[in-house]
Amino acid sequence: MELKEVFEQSKLHQKTCYVCPVCNGVACKGQIPGMGGKGTGASFIRNYQKIHDVKLVLDTIMEDSDISTESYFFDTKVSLPVYGAPIAGMIQQYQSDFSETDFADAMVEGCLLAGTISFVGDGKDVTTFVDPLRSVEKNQGMGVPTMKPWERKGIDARLEHVRVSNCLALACDVDASGLLFLRNVDPRITNFSVYDIRYVKEKANKPLIIKGIMSVKGALKALEAGADGIVVSNHGGRVLDDTLATIEVLEEICDAVKGKMKVFVDGGFRSGVDVFKALALGADGVLIGRPMAIAALGNRKDGVSEYLKKIQIELKETMMMTGCHTIADITKDKIICK
Ligand SMILES: Cc1cc2nc3c(=O)[nH]c(=O)nc-3n(C[C@H](O)[C@H](O)[C@H](O)COP(=O)(O)O)c2cc1C
């Protein structure tokens, strides 16, 4: 099925995403539950816009040999450094006929089909964490469960499953403390301290990725807590209005912690050209959320894999026009920030 048809088909399986030609946060602004950014939607919109202020430097005189997008997620080889972002809320956010398991299967298996890995999400009930974790486990552990910063009993209930899981790593989206609808449930969402992150790291006994870092200060706290990686993310603009865009803070965060931990980024990345820019600014990889979720709802694992194929072709084309044969060749001098 062609990608255009995949996106069209997704309209049969969810009611909240308008499936716009460009997924930039404008049509859905403020729509939570739904696809939008919080408040005026400015954080989501800015994520998208600021990526396009980064411009590429053409350099086409190069040897006409193979271009490889291969990379590593920690020790695991991937076909491209692009990952499925964790998404949860099939009923509440998407009004979908998919279960969390249907959706996680599509994301995990679709990413694997394309040679890469998906993160999976978490919600109010433990099952919203455990069901996607099972999708990862039945696929040789090739995926990353993402736990929200619950108060201790919520964390312990999830860690029990993670400890005995074959998953590659564990992530924790600490910025979910801004999801107000999870403040009044039992157990409730909390703010995590350095101490809490250290607790999760010790108990999980897996590489730990802290998702939702938007400053050097935050990155250094994650490092101090023993995290192995971070995702520079503002949760797709869903936890606070009027934040900076992720691409605006990426370079300084990479400069501060590069070599000490892995740095991933998400928010508004929609093409291989966009991915190239993040890699040039120092990121080890990019997560893509909403469009990949729509591809999953449109044609399950084949939709996801088709979407990633598009991203890989665009990334290769960008490398071909900027003098890069490998991902390691994608350096800061290949871009200019306007
Ligand atoms: C409907 C929806 C549900 C989400 N659920 C989760 C989640 O369970 N855990 C998480 O860490 N992030 C969650 N996110 C945030 C995404 O992982 C990601 O940070 C964001 O969508 C990236 O931006 P993009 O969609 O512009 O690519 C969710 C985002 C959306 C839109």
Question: Would you mind describing this structure in some detail?
Answer:
- By secondary structure, the chain is of the alpha/beta class.
- It has a single domain (3-330), classed as Aldolase class I (TIM Barrel).
- Helices cover 38% and strands 14% of the residues.
- It is built from 10 helices and 12 strands.
- The strands form 3 sheets. The protein has an 8-stranded parallel beta sheet with strand order 4-11-10-9-8-7-6-5.
- The mean pLDDT is 97.
- The protein binds flavin mononucleotide.
- Flavin mononucleotide (FMN) binds at residues 35, 47, 85-89, 93, 121-122, 146, 173, 211, 233, 235-236, 238, 266-269, 288-290.
Radius of gyration, whole Å:
18 Å
Number of helices: 10
Proportion in β-strands: 5-15%
Annotation, overall tally of beta strands: 12
Bound molecules: flavin mononucleotide
The CATH first-level class comes to: Alpha Beta
How far is the N terminus from the C terminus? Answer: 38 Å
Gross geometry:
globular
Q: Can you identify the CATH superfamily?
A: Aldolase class I
The CATH topology comes to TIM Barrel
Largest sheet: 8 strands, parallel
- Percent helix, as a range, is 25-40%
* Overall tally of structural domains: 1
The main sheet orders its strands as: 4-11-10-9-8-7-6-5
Describe the structure using short key phrases:
338 residues; alpha/beta; TIM Barrel; globular; binds flavin mononucleotide
SSE blueprint and pairings:
Layout: H1 3-10, H2 42-51, E1 54-56, E2 71-73, E3 76-78, E4 82-84, H3 100-113, E5 118-120, H4 126-137, E6 143-147, H5 152-163, E7 170-173, H6 194-204, E8 208-213, H7 216-224, E9 229-232, H8 246-257, E10 262-266, H9 272-280, E11 285-288, H10 290-321, E12 335-337
Parallel strand pairs: 4-11, 5-6, 6-7, 7-8, 8-9, 9-10, 10-11
Antiparallel strand pairs: 1-12, 2-3
Helix pairs in contact: 1-10, 3-4, 3-10, 4-5, 7-8, 9-10
The protein binds flavin mononucleotide (FMN).
